[in-house]
Amino acid sequence: WSRHILYSKSKVSESEDYQRVGAFLKAIPQDVLAKASLRSKAYTRALMHFEAHITENKESIQDHLTFLQTLYAAMHEPDGVRGVNALRREEPSLREQILEHESIGLLRDATACYDRAIHYECGTYQRGYEYIVRLHMLSELEHTFTELQQSKKGSVPHLSKLPPHWSDRLEMTQNSFRAKEPILALRRALLSLQPQPVCEELVGECWLQSARVARKAGHHQTAFNALLNADNTNLAELVTEKAKWLWSKSDAHQALIVLQKGVAQCFPDDQTLTDPHSLQIKGKAMLL
């Protein structure tokens, strides 16, 4: 509109409306307009605004090579992409290398860069996740000590079962022994601070969870050690976990024997089950 008014009626260009519109347009940074034009696929306009931004602000083009390369790639200008790379004073990033390879048709090289980028991101994620697990543990440590202080004062009762959010948080944790076992070890230590004998049952549940996690990870000896520690508690789930551990070692015969004996011991025929949790455990055991 401003260009139309400017070139059609020169006197109108001196009006207040024109001046206001002109001031508004000038207030919009040229680099913002360039990025908006790129997203809108108005590539020629994006290049025009980019050039205006560089000229007005007298900035070094070295700081904007990634944007310029992306723009040339979107315009299907392989020579422009090559030209941008020629201007670089530093080694291009993986993303920049991928742009160049794809724009000039070197798809094998682009694939190699993608593989390297994926490997790098996975490694970075894994290193970062270790800190997330530590923050997770610090949060539980703080929460449990607060509850212990309150229970000593009599303001809250002692734990009679594992906090429900513990199970949810463990489910959301990365499905690996390396991530889950430190959390379970901390929980066992925290639960041991609770009064006896309630803590023995709760610690046993944590040992059982460790056995399950270790078994799924293929750490059979670690799983066995956890089962031995959980054996001091009267957990019905212990029977099914022992059977699953034996089955994972390809000892199907012994797994069936343990399962049959365990079901007969934990759920005798003359005992009527009314607890939904016990019914669920028995049902799972019978289905194995």
From TrEMBL:
One of its GO terms (biological process) is DNA damage checkpoint signaling. Keywords: DNA damage, Kinase, Nucleus, Serine/threonine-protein kinase, Transferase. Its main location: nucleus. The lineage of its organism: Eukaryota, Metazoa, Chordata, Craniata, Vertebrata. It holds the Pfam family FAT. It comes from Nothobranchius pienaari. It comes from the Eukaryota. GO terms for cellular component: chromosome; nucleus. It is found in: Nucleus. Residues 32-288 form the FAT domain. One of its GO terms (molecular function) is protein serine/threonine kinase activity. InterPro entries: DDR_Repair_Kinase, PIK-rel_kinase_FAT, PIK_FAT. This is Ataxia telangiectasia and Rad3 related. The keyword Transferase applies.
